[in-house]
Please model this.
Amino acid sequence: MKRILVLIYATFLFGPVLDAQESTPAPPPMEPQAPERPGPWRSTSPAQAAVPVPVPIAPPKPNGPIQKSLVRITATSVEPDYKAPWNAGGLERGVGAGFVISGNRIMTNAHVVANSRYVTVERDGDPNKYPAKVQFIANDCDLAVITVPAPDFFKNMLPLQFGGIPTLESTVSAYGYPIGGERMSVTTGIVSRVDFQLYTHSSVDQHLAIQISAQINPGNSGGPVMQDAKVVGVAFQGYSGDVAQGVAYMIPTPVIKRFLQDIGNGHYDEYPDLAITYAKLQNPAQRRFLGLKDDDRGVVVSSVVAAGPSNGILYPGDVLLAIDGHPIASDANVELDGEHAQFEEVVERKFKGDSVKLDVLRNKQPTTVSIKLYKPWPYSVQGHSYDVRPRYVLYGGLLFQPLNLDMLEAYRTADLRVRHFFEYFVLDQLYVQHPDVIVLTNILPDPINTYLAPYRGGIVDEINGKKIRTLDELAKAFTDSQDRLVIRMIGDGPPLVLDRKQVEAARERIMTRYNVLKEQNLEEQPASKAAEQANKT
Amino acid sequence: MTTTRHALITFGLVLFTVGGALAKKESAVPAALSKQKQLALVRVNVTGQSYDYFRPWQKKAPFSKRALGAVLSKGRVLVTADLVANQNYVELERAESGEKTAATVEVIDYEANLALLQPAEKTFLDGITPLEIAPDTVVGDRLAAWQLEPTGALLATEGLVTTVQMMSYPIDVGQFLTYRISIPLQYRENSYTVPLVKKNKLAGLLLRYDSRSQLVDAIPAPVIMHFLKDAESQNYRGFPSAGFSFSPTRDPALREFAGEKGKNAGGVYVTTVEPGTPAMKAGLQVGDIVTAVANNEIDQNGNYVDPLYGKIEFTNLLTAHAYAGDIVPLRIQRSGNPMQLNVTLEHRDAKDYVSPPYNLDQPPRYYVLGGLIFQELSRQYLKEWGPNWQREAPQRLVYLDHFQSELFPDRNRRVVILSQVLPANSTIGYDELAYLTVTKVNGKEIKSLDDLAEAVKHPIEGFIKVETEEDPKQIELDAAQVGAEAQDLQENYGISALHRLN
Model:
């Protein structure tokens, strides 16, 4: 059930601190479980409502001279405009933290540098701003590695070492550049909980995260959380003050180490996934029905994602008894290094192309399967995308876009059918028929489409009798069409009929009137040269 | 001690003053009595209980409503269906004397939101001159809303009819003629039914009131007259429908596609024809252009020219003007060829839907199986989530209800849901399951609770296997354990009966 667990409370990213110029408030959550981004914190705003209370500062020393490792990162980013996808998008500037690690690299959160066009780094006691480059970005686990080309930058910096998972109740210190001043800030707290959490940067991935009680605020993002002079986590997300207080999360070192190992081959391959849903097996009758012993072992497979690595290997009704030799308890836990963890943690530690061995009870017969892991693509539709240009086709003033989380949030659509297609895209295997769920999202008014407003929000099913499965097929249907285009939407309703000659005649007119620079973008190409390079390295 | 006494004294004083005021006003009544007798209004007091769809074996706490009824000829009292839906006891009260009698609901139409009451005592309405009906209200007319002061005196507020159009009524089945009136209504008691009167004749009945915009929507006289006429027959049939949906044909490209030649010709594009409905029986097809209904030409937006109202949607010809059983000619264009179809209208009952749009005055069906509660999806169930149920109810169920005719074209079925799980020994590990749609039980396909009740009688090797559309896809119960636990379950959770299937 890993993928369908929903975050009940609104969390927010300690996102980059935004400058005033682009301060459109974040759209309200589409769904109760949608993550909430913080409102912009204006570092220079004179109208700061909260008056800081002076607190006597006792300089922390136990973790050593952190100033020699900590950097302040300022990123200028371009947020794609899903409502006018031909435009570059809005400019935003944010501040986060980072720290030097081995190999002249700086580690930070992905959300600090995602969509960035220009990144600078500052360090304590140095008046210079150093231009930096994003080397690797892992949006699924909210980590990034950047570097500073200036030859002397790392000379006097101290790379930090990583520790393990800190014990519950032990004290940790978080370093960063949060609200309240310009210089480095330290807060301390204890380790409250170690558990799987939704990473809201992608808002579709769940990994291990450690909850700490240290005060963490916007600007702490990407900063190290230290214990005994070693990094035990990277501060990254928490709840806004009106939901819960003193609840902040850091990315623990197993996730960090996995990321660093993944990029060891010069490319980030993302987390692989079994792409199954399962149910715990705690009901005695169900256990007997499935032919299980009364030994508290096993979970039952509910569904298998057809686009995933388990397709054709695992089947609904299979009971998973062990993973790589670790017995799976009926509550889905395994014992790993003396700790209890959900059995997915075994998969979490693997890389694309690795295999996992499962002991299965199928129709009461034991069997063993091996699954070569990769990341199934359909999940990405339900998460945020970064550093890509939105895909779209504009034809006759009609804007067609594939359904994804960013598009849905931009339009704040309440349409029941569109939301159903989004919500059940993976679970109901809707991607098999509709790899792209193509929505007529907007209409740029023109005499040729003046009566077409009621079709807005519809999902394209077929054109001239041919099923349309992808945006490419849509674009091709438009170029290949004869005189007349008959577009059928899913569900009831009349077909949308376009006269090709009229569309051609209106083309220039519409592009000029609405300042449309490009009529279509079919490939999710990198949004900037910097991102392109990061992908190549 | 002292505070209590003080409070008691004050309370006594208040009572006294109120009593005094009442007595004083009472004395003023006889003078106006002869005029009061003219008022064809009675108070209607209703106590009711609605069924609790989250605990379908029980009813919710009683509610009481107090409103006004319009006295019509033959000793009938007209109220909204909303007022008397789920009633346990209805009482009529003479406005001027306070005299009371029990009443029965003779006919009720939830879709048109109208009901007829009859007093138990036949002489109860004696002396009241019944209201006649004014069928000819048009935009620009002034209507008076009749309310009653606590004394029984008339409180009349006048307003202007701003719009006459087809709208959805609260039950949201079909479209009905509606008057919209701009009127600053005053709050009196909890008046659910307020008659609207034109020159001392009944012009309409209040449907809803928005106090901010001061706009009243009213059930108009033509709908009331349709209801009354139908109510006079032995079996009330209900408002008819044809069973197709349509879309305007303003778009020239769509007109050309549908084979419509004339640029200014009217007609609407048929988008769906529901199976088993009069339209399908008459041979109407998706893509047809309906150009005339009951010999009234209709324009590209679906309006005809009504002699009274001017342009209004043609559905008015089917609801207000026609009755179930009537044959209505439709003129259509199919691929450019004119044709005529004769549609025999029928009323579509709530039970003829896959997910019934309403279920009032009737208990919900359910089946409890070892802590698993099974119910049939209905809009009444979804409405348990409150006025914002469309957003707040489980979205998958809202989706199934909303697109039911598209998702279940065969119609002849229900959607059985596992609505919740009561923790018990037999349901350990299942207690968080809810709102799942049931596909099979013990290998048998489930299209109603009756199917389910039958299927559970045939366990597979001692197990009852329930399969669901959503995860976890399958759960099993020990049939013997379910049976053994049934009594404990009933006692623990106060379940009066483990199932209700009729």
About this structure: The two ends of chain A are 35 Å apart (CA to CA). Confidence is low (pLDDT under 50) at residues 1-53, 55-60 of chain A.
